[in-house]
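Q: Here's a chain of 632 amino acids. Please give me its 3D structure as tokens.
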Amino acid sequence: MVSSSSHSLLSLITLLIITINLNTQLIFAQPRYLSKFCFPNEGNYTTNSTYRTNLNSLLSTSLLSNGNGHGFYSSSSSQNDVERVYAIGLCRGDINPDACGSCLSNSTISIAQACPNQKVAVLWRDVCMLRYSNRSIRGFMEAGPIFYTTSSGNVSSSDVGGFNWQLMTLLERLRGEAAAGGDLVKFAVGNVSKNNVISQTIYGLAQCTPDLTESDCNNCLVSIAGDIPQCCYGKLGGRLGTPSCSLRFDVYKFFNDTTADTTITRGKKSTMSARTVILIVVPSVFGMVLTISTWIHAMLRETGEEVLGEEADEIRSAEALQFDFASIRVATNNFSEENKLGWGGFGDVYRGTLLNGEDIAVKRLSTDSALGDLEFKNEVLLVARLQHRNLVRLLGFCLEGNERLLVYEFVPNASLDQFIFDPIKCANLDWESRYKIIVGIGRGLLYLHEDSCLRIIHCDLKVSNILLDAEMNAKISDFGMTKLFMLDQRQGETNRVVGTYGYMAPEYVMRGYFYDKSDVYCFGVLVLEIISGQKICSSRHEENEDLLSYAWKNWKEGTASNIIDPTLRTGSRSDEIMRCIQIGLLCVQQTIAERPTMASVILMLTSSSLSLPEPSQPPLFMIELEMSGVVG
């Protein structure tokens, strides 16, 4: 006969087995996380360490007890502990408290599996993000690491330009709304309905952790929006996230109608209920899962498509930027020779004055472009969004018949080549002025590559495309021209190589490939021209050396001062000039991987204490190009 105590023990064991079994099923039924970063270089903790104890306690109990009632959780272990752990959890702003608590509790399990023993980690699920660290993370904007995913569907080729324009317009609006959301919630959703520009409704979402300032939230969202052209170009859907912010878009409605405000209003009661369950279940489950090294998850993806939402008022942007052809013709005196400022590969440039007295520069594009009117307009609207002090501002455009005009701000001091290659004017450019120009070009290029809402590779950077304003600040012009007119390009490859002799990177000339570091190559050529006062294709001495060959030879022989413009050799900061020569040579290295990014270049230029690597040989192929008939 079984005693009552034995029966009770058996019942308890049976209940425990059932509970563990149910919890285990619950664990393995969870959808797989989207992405994670484990930061092994930030240090590891051991199994019996205080850090692990603090982390277990924080993630299983303390964090989920310290929410703001609106899907944001932040906590840390004991203040007096040297092994202090900090954690943040964030749920998507349209998710109810029960779903939020479930997502975060599952994330504590997943992060233990995905990043065992790491002191710093972050993990994203479909509707929440969880991170922890050995340093304070609340209130600090983290623009990286970044993760992204894309949908399998592609935008039709005829819709790509319009889709990108409408998408960026939508995300810019949501970015502002999310950043201005206040201290409790920084979250915005919206859509742009299908119209005569796009054939499908686009839905978007923007969110930051609410501990960020409005400025930091805005900067974080701008930063990841800059990755959209690289990760998600031509895709119907995509999402990007960092530990501090996230963006998402798709052509189906992936968010709930319930707004953040509604979730806030009903949050307290539901959150208490979810928290009670979590505090009971999670500690035991979390402790058990720490010993599990594998997991089985099913990737869940919501499907469906709804055509709902507001009318797209972004079309008005085109009207605001479109100039009347008759007005431009009057402003330029009927495109007279007296008003012509110059010419380039895409057309002639004229000075004009509008009726309000504003001076403008008008590029009259050649009429043999195969670009469709709608595609032209959409791409121009994208480029018009690029705003930086070191870029020439595009004011608008004009389309009438075969006429296609681009209207820019007027920059009074013309182009850089008219100064550095002129034996008289070059004397007006002392080293301080030239250094300011070099840094300005670098900052403008960095903006195009990394900080703008688009990712622009210039592909035709040269001295004649660097304009100087009244204060001799450098302004890059013709950015976006390659994007606008190289219609046969596909993901960094083109069958039509266009550019200027001497500036084109070898991978572009030889194979038609172009990268952001192809622009870095052009920048290096510019730096050497600005320092030497000589054109890249200038022949030197009896050996018919071009500037790159001459600069490299003198660098290797320890006579790099020979490169310097004679007008700079007295009274200038020779150490700074020599450093810039080295940076220029680093930018023009033959191997793409060895060239620095523009972010690194700016750091080199502005941090004199930073040691520089030794450059390797640049591509000395000028004569070969001349023989092969490559022209600019």
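Q: Can you summarize the key feature?
A: The domain at 322-410 is CATH 3.30.200.20 (Phosphorylase Kinase; domain 1).
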